[in-house]
Amino acid sequence: MKERKLVLGDIHGHLDKLAAVFELSSFDMDNDLLIQVGDICDRGPSSYEVVELLKKCKKLVLIEGNHDQWLKSYMNSTMRGLDAMWVQQGGKATLDSYARHKLEPAVHKEFYSRQVPYYVDADNNCFVHGGFNRKFKIAEQDMESLAWDRELVNQMMSAAPGEKLKTADNFNHIYIGHTPTIYWHEHKPITRAGITNVDTGAGKGGRLTIMDIDSQQFWQSVS
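RE: above sequence
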């Protein structure tokens, strides 16, 4: 069976939405390559269960999101202090998910350590959570800011029809998450200027999206 390459948007702890897109896309846990663009945890009720399901994927590329950074900071802290903003932005739901299983998030420390700040495939497609400064090569940039950047998505949305934004790496296409398309009143992925935003708002009451990179066909959960 030919391997498919699929990109998956921000999950934000929603096991039901993840299970739905896997079923709708007939995702093959053994053969399909899954590139997840970050923000696995927070806001939804099932951050623990989401990781347990993702662990079953044999071919998995994990991009680090800003919410994942918050969780990893908590796991790596010797003070066990809580970042107030993280708690407010969904961290409490993550801690509650693990607590229901009488576990600490550190049980998934190795899994989260596999995340990378960005990924470039053999076709020179780039996958990053937030964005980057197009004037510089992505490898030269601050790895933490790649998870937080919103300048790229704003440039994408401001681009002229038919325009492709140039990058120092001359990427073929760029896939991002982080900034939900519902901010522009769109419930589907947005493709403009050589960039596709696959965060369709699963963490904010919207849908989760999985997309076949080659065919551009996508499947979505129900909000």
